[in-house]
Design a protein that fits this description.
Aminopeptidase; 3-stranded antiparallel β-sheet
Amino acid sequence: MSITIRRFSSPDEKAWDEFVENSNNGTLFHTRKFLNYHPEDRFMDHSLIFETKGNIISVLPAVIQKKDGNQVLISHPGASVGSCVVPERLSFSQSLKIVEILSEYAKLNKLNKLCLTQPSIIYQRHISQYMDFAFKNEGYYFAYRELSSYLQLENTIENNLAKFKSTHRTALRKAEKLGVDIRLSDDFATFYSILQNNLSTRHN
């Protein structure tokens, strides 16, 4: 199966986000809607699209940074995770081909190094380590590893609360007594104002 690679351009935005939404391992951080939040001049975008027969088979949100005189392709710094987004039914041979083509592209475009942040396996709909193996097979290695964990949501609020530390449960009951109400809202202006204040308080 022939797979081609090309750079992302703005007309690809809709198809990109649709692909991420229906992918096996894509997250909010891979979408153009999220990445476009950053000013255009902040990063040198060099996102890539892999296609077969005109259909997207993988996308890679990335930028180029110059480090010690080298051109380095890295996962988008504005996102918590990156690397290749792939479909749920990606075959092993397709995984190998995507990484092989990426490496060839890097050489042709004089990219001296690639640094990609793999999305945690917990984001996958169908657990697969094909891409991890494909990168390893092509000579890539883990520069470092980070710990991931998740909380299993229970079927009732009471069962979820039972998992809280006693101090957290006390704080929750206090908030309820003070009339704090948690609800869905489309009042984005108020939400954003609260978010800004909280970020300013916590992260200056």
